[in-house]
Amino acid sequence: MKKKFFSIVSAALMMAMSVGASSSCKFFFQEDDDKQKTVMNVCLNPEVEFLLDGNNKVISVNAINEEGNLIISSEAFSDVEGKSAEEAAKLFVQVSKETGYLVQSEVQVGENELKISLSGDTELASTLYNSVETQVKNYLESVDIQATVQQQAAITEEKLKALVEECAPYIETAEMEYAELMNTLIESRKETAEFYSQELKEVYYEAKAFAMEQASLEVMRDKLSLLQKAAFDICTGEYNLAVKAIEAQRYIFVVGENSTYNLALKALQQIKIDYIKARTEIKVGGFTAEVKLNLEGLQAMVAEAEAAIHQAVEQVNEVLDVQLNVATMQYTKALDILAQEKIKAEENLPKIAEKRQNMQKTFFESFERDYGSAAKAVKKSWTDMETALRSTVSVNTEVEVG
Question: Of the candidates 180, 211, 177, which has an alpha carbon nearest to the alpha carbon of residue 28?
Fold first, then answer.
């Protein structure tokens, strides 16, 4: 939803504010050292992103898919910041093992395939990968798990730009360099570190983007004549009403505890518990025709549950099309008024930057107040799932050892 809205609006926005959007971000982020920061993605089925400082220590961790939230919401990850890349990757593998995402018996095709991707300088990335791979393989050997560890295609600057645009669609990334992209991504990820839901993060980034654009428009408004302000206020007033309607519907359909999305997510969590339980009960040589048929049935149910989650997102996008069109139309009208008066963002960068900074001081508190209960509810659903999985894996491991 967020990407869809801002892909429409940003085209008009950049005509009036392209310089302001790309330049103003420089007021917020400065390189604190000369060493390269790195993105490290670790994927099994849960997929997690680690942001590393110039010494390859973890600055921030973020789930890339929903089940990645189960891993990073674990108590084991509470002190992950400051750990080395090697320690972080090992921790990911350890929690995956303890919750059944790594198979501890006979491995089938597609299971126990750990994939690692890195950003930045090729030589540095290769050196870091080799170190991480060694640490992970040593751990896997120590717990007697057969798994493959593979380096995936590098996370390119284009991919980094796409990540930044998802987190901050109000920023134009075309002229941003690697270090600036990394700093912007790090700041955005820190803000959503306690949001263990992919959709909740999307809602946060979208709401913040609306607030940032509103802050910019308010600065530009001050340059208008009284007559033009009246027309401008009508446009932005309608725009803000449409935005509030969008946010309200997003809460109902994908964020609230009883939203369509979260009910579908809970269904997926329960089915995944059933699947992993069945999978961990299988011992070496135990893949009979009956066992395989049972697993295939559970896998089909998992696929159906995943499809229901995607359908929930598509449904809300359809519902919001009307408000989306209203917001786009009124926003474009407001930009047209600024263009007619020859008011340019690049002539107001310091004020825009100051306004945005002031907004950021209060935005997070406001969002946390409105969405805090939803955030706690979804985290509890992951910790409940983790508890169930750890119990299942522990029991079956003890049985096998005995």
Answer: 180
Predicted confidence (pLDDT) per residue in 323-373, tens digit: 888 988 999 999 999 999 888 777 788 888 888 888 887 899 999 999 999
pTM of full prediction above 0.85:
yes
Neighbours of 200 (CB within 10 A): 24
Torsion over CA: 56, 134, 153, 102 (sign): negative
Whether residue 46 contacts residue 65, with contact meaning beta carbons closer than 8 Å, is answered with yes
- Between CA 60 and CA 249 the distance in angstroms is 30
Q: What is d(CA 81, CA 60) in angstroms, rounded to the nearest whole number?
A: 6
Full strand arrangement of the beta sheet holding 38-43: 58-63, 47-52, 38-43, 113-118, 148-151
Q: Report residue 35 as tokens.
A: 């060493």
| Amino acid making up residue 316 | V
CA 379 to CA 191: how far, in whole Å? 16
Instruction: Count Cα neighbours of 365 within 13 Å in the Cβ-side half-sphere.
Output: 5
For 40, the enclosing helix (H) or strand (E) is strand 38-43
Q: In the numeric block, which tokens belong to residue 323?
A: 């408000």
Spatial separation of the C-alpha atoms in residues 70 and 54, rounded to whole Å: 28
Residue 348's contacts (CB-CB under 8 Å, 6 or more residues apart) are 20, 219, 220, 223
Angle between helix axes 349-401 and 85-98 (nearest 10 degrees) is 50
Helix (H/G/I), strand (E/B), else coil: 157 = helix
CA distance 100 to 103: 6
Question: Is residue 117 within a helix (H) or strand (E), and if so which, with residue range?
Answer: strand 113-118
Which residues partner with 149 through β-bridges? 114
Q: Are 361 and 224 in contact (CB under 8 A)?
A: no
Task: Please state the length of the chain.
Answer: 402
State phi, psi for 140 to the nearest 5 degrees: -60, -40
